[in-house]
């Protein structure tokens, strides 16, 4: 029987730009958005805010909006796991947020002891958002309308 894991996924936008990242050491991991495992005793909303900060380092995020939840089997990645994912949207309110930066998450839930490096960058949502790996883009269309 597949192991069940609760996860959060967060779409962080700044205007009509979406924050995404790649793994410099693992390019095959594709383009992703901040996401992670909900810890025991944590609500999905709390996990979303924690993961967003741990992974990105961004502090000026607001307008947290719950978009919905979906389940996804991870068998196509060789994992006997079903993820229940809670999707959220947040706005980046920091006009000085960098265009691109490298950040190392020191305490990843996937068990790495050396940390995981993320190469963050903003990508345009128009004319079409990027193709996010493993169904992470499932509810991107439900994010609040872009404010210009």
Could you please describe the fold and organization of this structure?
This protein is mainly beta and 148 residues long. It has one domain: Alpha-Beta Complex (Nucleoside Triphosphate Pyrophosphohydrolase), CATH 3.90.79.10. It is 9% helix and 41% strand. Strands 1, 2, 3, 4, 5, 6 and 7 form a seven-stranded mixed sheet that branches. 25% of the residues are buried. The mean pLDDT is 92.
Summarize the structure.
The chain is built from one helix and seven strands. It is mainly beta.
List the helices and strands and how they pair.
Blueprint (H helix, E strand, L loop, with lengths): L2 E12 L2 E6 L12 E3 L6 H13 L4 E13 L7 E12 L7 E6 L10 E9 L24
Parallel strand pairs: 1-5
Antiparallel strand pairs: 1-2, 1-3, 2-7, 4-5, 6-7
Structural class: mainly beta
N to C succession of SSEs: EEEHEEEE
Total helical segments: 1
Output the CATH topology.
Nucleoside Triphosphate Pyrophosphohydrolase
Oligomer, anyone? single chain
What proportion strand?
Answer: 35-45%
Fourth-level CATH superfamily: Nucleoside Triphosphate Pyrophosphohydrolase
CATH architecture: Alpha-Beta Complex
Shape designation: globular
- How far apart the termini lie comes to 47 Å
Major sheet description: 7 strands, mixed
* Helix-residue proportion: under 10%
Number of strands: 7
Radius of gyration: 15 Å
Which stretches are low in confidence, meaning pLDDT under 50 for 5 or more residues running? none
Write down the domain tally. 1
């Amino acid at each position: 029987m597949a192991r069940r894991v609760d996860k959060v996924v967060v779409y962080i936008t700044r205007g009509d730009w979406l924050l995404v990242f790649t793994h410099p050491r693992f390019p095959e991991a594709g383009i992703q958005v901040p996401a992670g495992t909900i810890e025991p005793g944590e609500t999905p909303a709390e996990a979303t805010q924690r993961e967003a900060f741990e992974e990105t380092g961004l502090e000026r995020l607001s307008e947290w909006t719950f978009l919905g939840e979906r389940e996804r089997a991870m068998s196509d990645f060789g994992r006997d796991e079903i993820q229940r994912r809670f999707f959220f949207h947040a706005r980046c309110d920091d006009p000085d947020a960098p265009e691109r930066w490298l950040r190392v998450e020191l305490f990843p839930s996937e068990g790495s002891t050396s940390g995981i490096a993320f190469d963050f960058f903003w990508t345009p949502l128009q004319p079409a958002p990027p193709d996010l790996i493993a169904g992470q883009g499932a509810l991107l269309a439900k994010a609040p309308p872009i404010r210009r």
